[in-house]
Each structure stands twice: as C-alpha cells, then as structure tokens.
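EI: anyone free to look at a 638-residue chain?
SC: sure, send it
EI:
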Amino acid sequence: MTDPTHPTWRWEEFDPDHTSMSGDISKLFRNEPIKTPGILAVDAPPSNASVMMREVIQNSWDAARELQRDWSGGTADSPPSFDVCFEFKEVSGPSKQDVVAALGLLQLAEQRSRFEEAAAAPGRDRSEIRRTLGLPPESCLDFLVDESRPVRVLVITESGTTGMYGPWGVDSRMYLAMCSVGYTPKLEGGGSFGYGKAGMIRGSATRTVFAYTCFEERDDDPGVTRRLIGMTYWGEHRVGDRHYTGFGRFGASEQVGVRPLENDDADAAASALGLPVRNAEDLAEIGTTFLIVDPVVAPDDLRRAAERHWWPALEDPSVDFSVRIESAGGDVLIPRPKRDAVLESFRQAYDLAVHPPQQAQDGTFVAPFRGPAKGTLALTSDLDGWSYPESRAESPQQRDRTLVALVRDPRMVVEYLPVGRESMRPLLRGIFVADPSIDAALRRTEPKGHDCWQTSSEDVENADLRVAIKVVERIKRAVGRFRRTLKPPPRPVEEVALPEFDRVMRQLLTGPGPIPAPPKGDRAFKIMPTPRPEAVGTDNIRVAGQAQFGLQDDFDRDECEVEIRLRYAFDEDGSLGSDVNLTVTAPDGFRRGDREGAFFGTLVKGRDVTFDFVSDPHSGLWTGRLVATAEELKVTTA
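SC: here you go
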C-alpha cells in the first residue's frame, strides 16, 4: 500500500532478472576536469562548480527553449522569462531536527553505518570504506544530532521552463532526468537525458538530490501537475546477503518500490523541505526546484563559473536568460562577465560576430563561413598588450596561447579551443558562433561533458564528424591567415611537407611518388625522410616510413653529437598546428630525449642511421606535415 503521508527512503537491490548499474554515476565526470587552457587558468572556478553550472543550467535552458519554441500564446503574449536561482541555506538549532526528518537523513546515516560495519576489516579505515560509496570522509551525516552544526542545502529554482512532465516511466521527463542515465537522446538542446544530474551529484557531499517539479496537465498524464522524488547516487555495496546498487529513492513507498509523491502529497513534502509550493495554474510557477544536500560548492565559485561558461547568453540582449546566486547570509551574487578581465577580448569578438562592422577594424578579423561549417568567426588582437606577453607564467597551465571560444545555439561556451602551438605569436582570441543549421550536427559530436566538438569518434556518425572537422579546420586556417597579416611566421627549419590532401588520396590509389629532396645549401647533415600515406579504414589515413640521418661528406669531423627530432603535425594553412602522435623506433645508440620525438646520439661520417616512424590514424580530410631536424649538441668544457 502507498503511504504518501510518510515518505521514506528505499535502496534498490541488484536483480539478476533486470539490468542494473551502480548508482555512483558522478564518476561519469570524475576524470574529466573542466579544461582551462592559456589565460583561462587565471582565477578559474573549481571543476565541481563549473560542471554544476554547465550541466544544471543546460538542462533547464533546454526546457525553457522547448517552451519558447512551442509557445502557442494563450492568455499571455510571450512565455515567462527564464530564470535560475542557486540559493544556499543553513538550518541549525531546534528546527534542525525537522529538516533532518523531512530529508530522511537518519535513514541515510543508518544505511551508511550498516555498510561500514559490514565492510570493516583489519587495516581498512572508515574513509576508505566511505570512498567505496562515493562519499567523503565527513559529511552532515556525521553530526545530525548536533544542533550547533547546521545542515546545509542548496536549492536550485528554475522558472520559465516546461517542468518535468510526462506519465511516470519511460515517457516521464522526471524519470529520465533523475532515475536513468543517457536513456533517451534529446531531440534538441544540450545532450542526453540523465547526464545533467552528474553535475548536481558532484556538488553534494552526501550524493543526494531532491526534485520537485510542476507542469501543465497533459492528456497522457491526466490529473497530475506536480511530482517530488529524492535520489541517492551511491556506489554499489553489500550488507549481509543483500547487494545494493547504490540508487536510493525517497517518495511514496509501495510494495514493489518507491514512486514519486504527486500533487498535494508532493506539495506537502516540498513544504516540509522548506521549498516554496508551486501552482500549475500560474505559468510563472511552472518549472522544477532541486534540493542538493550538503553542497560542496561555494556561492562565489558558482558565480565565476556562470560567467566563464554562460557569458554569451548572459550578455546577449536577444536571449531571455537570467542567473543569480544567493548565499546563506542573504547576499545576492549576479554573474557579470564584464567584471572578468579574462573574458574581455572574447566578449569583443562575440560583439563582432553577431554585429559585423561595416568596415574592417584594425587588429580584428571577421569571416562568415559557408557550407558545412556555416557560422561566423571573429578574432581580436592586442599587439601592444596580451598578443605579445612579456613573460610566461611559471605554471604550464597558465601559459597563454591563442584561443577561440566555440559557441552554438544554447549560447554556452562549449570549449575554449587552443589553436596552434603554445609558442606561436602574436596571440589571438576569438569566437566561432555556429549557424542554427549545423547546431544539431555539432551537438551530436559532443561527449557527455559537452566540452568539445569531436573530430574523431567511433560513436558519432561520419556526416556529423565532417561538420566538426570542417569547422575546426576552417578556424585554424583563418587564425593562421590573420596571424600572418600581423606578423609573418618564421620559416620552419629542415621541413619536409606531405602533399596536399588530393595528392595524398592519389597516392593511396597509385602508390607513393618520389619525395622531393630537401633544399640544397650549407648544411652539416643529410636528412632523407621517406614518408608514405596509408589508408586506415574508410575515412582515415596515417603516415609511416623511415628517415635517414648522416653527416655531409665535407663535414669537418668524423663524428658529431646530435639531437634528432621527428614530428608530425596538421597543416594550418602553411603553419604547423596540432601534433599527431608519432611512434618512432630509434636505431641502436640513440636514446630518447625529454622533448616529444627527440633522440640523442652520435652521427659518424659514412655511416647513416635510420629511424622508423608511424603516426596515429587521423581523418583523411586533414593535411599533415612531417618535420625532421638534426641539431649539433655543443659540448662545453670547464
């Protein structure tokens, strides 16, 4: 029998007759830190705050855009404004026990204690046991009866969205968002249902999230407009002969499980949790409220994360988009990207991209892309400032480099894409704003973290990969062209270039032709590479071959200590770009150096040495260059 007046926690057990997975789905992002290349490493928000801000807002924004797209008018001319509020709360003193009871925290603490007792063993401390559950060494579960230590929660309230509608089960947005992982791909927006919760879970020390949602009544779900459910996302664990998945549900207990509380019961539970009750008759109150137990993120970190990742939506007046954060002390923090000096050049580029100037401006570049890479690229420079920094930061992560923000229709920065080698100057910053016509293809190339447009993946259709490849390729070429108008790049030393793509493909059919000899001149070394392209599968190629090195016949000594280096990199419109991994087998007597692809040894006159190499496969749409160099090592004596 359902007892909605006393909602409870119940933990799922492994069932051999049903497919199961561990509840610790926060590990989906555990080894995927937010990338902060170049200048983005300065004052970067913590990874947990960034993942939460990206994922939570993206899910809510997808629902808001669905409402805006399907808006039929009704009694209002336009849908309610989209707004997300992150509100931190603390409860201590006598009222703390009411919150502890409403959240069912004593049940969580009891389940954890039962597992700790069952898993206890000599030499195994409590912290290690808790890590098995995905829990930290200490959380609010350790001081539930201490009224002097507050229970902290983070309440995330969205408005101007559809709410999580649909009859409970596979057609329920709430079920897909809270109880499944990547089960059904979204037709629009940011990704698959279920991954967004990982952003909230990482922000909870107890891995516990509640969701209270309100939506318009629908024909397939008559009589229901509100639901509430709580979930734990712990690691799988055993207690006696019972094996738990780590998923726990809080709601109306039934004989076969726990279902969400509905309508008045959901309102009563929400009120007990300290959440404002929603009314489906008021369009402004339709949406979802999340409650995260024991948050591990800080208000100011969330503010900075919103600025770094959502500034295009926050600043674009054509986008109805609002985010605010409230601390437990009542301070209201509004993300204001203009305050972040790191973003200034990117914001300037965005303004150029969405409002192209009638005439070219010094130090800027704006180009509309056509065809499969449709969109607008805008680049900026500061030749008297950051384009030629005086010195580098000591930390490699803070070394500045050329970056282009990648943005599509949701107006979140998918990635700050590094372009070219770190040492290339002048530095540029810019933005690519994808046209809506390629939005769906780019979305399908994004991994679960939505942090790049993949150009190589077995899980993505080739047609979509080609769109991402063309976008990235054209960005890199445009960066190279614009940089050369500001400062010509230095000519590579001892460089041997592979043919362009059409010649590569012709070689695949007819066999490799002769390799042009290196340019003649006053050189100490003979360098004779023989690269050959090879087909890998249907669409990929790799380069393999040998490179011979020796001393010129007129060299003034019989032997010479040298550093030999082999490198294979993409051609970015005449300049070397991103490296492709090159596996090199060195001859006897040569040892590997610290630099990638570098080897040290001795060349002897009349005795050439041979290095074998093979690159990783890459798309045949890219052009690569093999660079082979030899440099004499100067020996100094005291």
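EI: Residues 189-194, 488-521 have pLDDT under 50 and may be disordered.
SC: 👍
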